[in-house]
Protein 1
Amino acid sequence: MADKKQGVVGAFLDGAAGLAGSYAATMTHLFRKPVTEQYPEYKRPLPARTRGRIVLTRSPDGKERCVACYLCSGACPVNCISMQSEVGPDGRRQAAWFRINFARCIYCGLCEEACPTLALQLTPEFAFCKDDIADFVYEKEQLLVEHGGKHPDYDFYAHAGVAAGGPKGSHIGEDDPVDVKSILP
Ligand code: SF4
Ligand code: SF4
């Protein structure tokens, strides 16, 4: 009988202790500063390397950087990039059309890693909702921006584009050719 009484008292004390702990936790939070962020009025600063909407950037001379090499579409794990290459009036290779389906994109950034001309870049923009899923298919005209993005001074063609036709050693940052006979033992 005594054991039964002790069991009931113990259970009551356990319950009371649990209840007191819960009330104590509530009271400590009651006087804390609220942490609710009123989006979209307040937009939390995002990390610099946040991966969001993709853009196609331009060289400092305003020309399109993309040379339609297909490397980005080859690297894309969900096959959401497609394009058709052509040669422009100035002899530069470019994309006749370029298409990204953002409804399939997983914003992994592999296409940006693969791009040799730094044309394709992911931006921190993430809020571009649509009512119609077909509107997530962006064409080249929607992807092209008027600046160089993260690399404003980089000019792919000055290094490896049309200038590649000149003699060896005449390109930016290229050393003069080595006379191999001069280094023979
Ligand atoms: S971010 Fe990833 S999924 Fe999206 S287009 Fe680039 S490679 Fe494809
Ligand atoms: S990898 Fe870059 S240059 Fe090549 S097709 Fe894609 S965006 Fe254009």
Protein 2
Amino acid sequence: MNQLIRCKNCDQVFMKSPFDQYPEYELGLDRPPETFQNTEKDDFQDFLIHHQGHELENLKIIDDSYASEKAYSEPVKTSFFKATNGKEKFVIKKFRERIDEPLKYQLISGDYSLKCVAVEIQSENISKQLERELNPRPSQEKIDAFLKLYGAIAEGVDIKDLERSPEESYHPLEVYHKIDDTRLMFLLRNCRNIFKGQEYLAMEEFIHRHKDDGVLLLKASYKIRITQLAKTRKRATPTPLPFEKEKILGQK
Ligand SMILES: [Zn+2]
């Protein structure tokens, strides 16, 4: 359904995406679908008029390239994704400043990458879960010692070594990872210094229950690093291309 169109002369993009443009429509409020579609159509006609005689091309959005500083559910935000025309790669900035504004798409020159800035344990969730599941509940001192031990393990981790958990994250820049067997062994071995007897056994079970999809997943936080490039790319000249162009729907 989504069609991303780039004007090669102006380096502007238009996203034909009926479900993306207006948040009111997504939420099923006020605007009936016909009015909405007409508005979308009008916007696209405006784009075509504005770029009349220019060379337009379809861009394909690159899978899994989405990045944003804010949660998926946050309607007012700036996010980025990458797209390609088969030869060149582009970065598209998608944003809106107010909830009642349509989304805007801007082609920016440059690139971005995600950098892991922190690997943390879910201290609060671990504490809560221990209180909920362990009976009798370990002393606060022991819980703190466990968090300290696990925190130290997380600190030394290179996140690239760890498997990503399939658990969905609500935030595009937070990814959960499972600890590997070597670190698991290290954790269990050191837990023997904190917990004894039955309490140790209960902890061991707790760790196995929560290491793959529970509170023991490590949270990796990322930051978007944008590398802005100087605009050196030449403006497209209207020389005919050697390959057959894809027709852009609605273009006259
Ligand atoms: Zn143009």
